[in-house]
Amino acid sequence: MRCGIEFEYLLVDLAGPEPGRVRDFTNLSFEEIAPQLEDKPGRDDPSLATGDIGIRSGYWYLEGDERAHEDGRFRTLMVKGVEIRTPPVPDIERAIQSMLSIEWQLTAALAKAGLGLAIAGFNPVRDRYDFDPPLNTWERAERAGDRGYDGSHVSTLSYGPDINLSWPGWNAARCLDAARKLNAYAPYIVPFSFSSPFFAGRVWEGLSRRTYARAAHRPAVKVYLDPETFAPAEACGLAHPARLSGEVGRIEFKAFDALISVELLRACCHLLEGICLASDLAMRSEGTDIGLYRRAALSGFADSGIREGAREILAKATQALRTAEKSPAVAALAELEEQMTRESTPAHRLLERYGRTGSMVWLGGLGKESI
User: Fold this and answer.
1) By the 8 A CB rule, do 10 and 24 touch?
2) Domain interval for residue 168
3) Most exposed of 93, 184, 349, 355 (fewest Cβ within 10 Å)?
């Protein structure tokens, strides 16, 4: 198996009158911050795609909504935060350690600009993202023909990991089957990650504003197949032609909220691995059950249907990992078993912390708080 991790962070002020203040498209321009982050690792790594205009290069890059001039030339990026991505490596633990190393380097680079990292599943202080100025003719035409722009009014406010798994020996049919399986079970497992109980500067009515808003607009799973043999899968909304040879067979899970600890990231990666390997999980889907996602977003494991579904999935994923003799992976899932026992989510932890400190984000990098 191979694994790569993409992880989105908010940016916050380290000092000044409001340490911990969220910096985004309302108060931080691309032109202001981009030069501070240009000296970065991985710029020449051929295993990573760079996007059409090349601003997504290296092991970190600014994330947000790309805006263009009337003739299609890049104009600016409406900054939502920064993203780390690791190169694909032979196992989950190496991917996590690679990410932590990159995060350490990114933290040092940001500190020179007076900025730090923060983690949350949804921007806790903004109530909306508007196109300012309105989309021009070229932008409207471009977005109409590219699914990647779907729901940009939501994705510019939301944060989460993309966990990428692949098995080089698997054929296209098996990869597509695993993607359909993850898509079907996603609404039951996303509460393990919930980290967005705030919205527009207030406590929200549920546990994951991200999941509630995102389900109707963004995919939970993507799978990348060999362009030469892509035609049979073209009708499947989960399938995409690979852009690089090393991307063939990549299964990308995108539905988790931002994860607030290394232990939780490790557990969720291995949960996905176990689901892909489990032969006794029968459900498959290509569509999105928006109602089920929203039930989960509001109540988490307090909803008995979500809780029992998650319990079954966790048990069968654990057994699949045990059968594959992956004892460290099995041990990692204890983090999720504890959540099930307490009917709790990371959002409950953030709400408790908010009551003590008033902060709506997890300040610092993965598993560590700062400020």
Assistant:
1) yes
2) 2-363
3) 355
Each residue of 221-264: pLDDT tens digit? 999 999 887 777 777 889 999 988 889 999 999 999 999 999 99
Going through the chain in order, the beta strands assigned E by DSSP cover 2-13, 22-23, 60-68, 74-85, 115-119, 161-166, 198-199, 202-203, 221-225, 239-241, 251-253, 362-363
Q: How many domains does the chain have?
A: 1
* Residue 287, both tokens: 């569509």
CB 178 within 8 A of CB 276: yes
304: Cβ contacts below 8 Å, ≥ 6 apart: none
Residue 295 CA from chain centroid, whole number? 20
Write out pLDDT tens, residues 151-182.
Answer: 999 999 999 999 999 999 999 999 999 999 99
User: Does 265 reside within a domain?
Assistant: yes
CA distance 277 to 316: 9
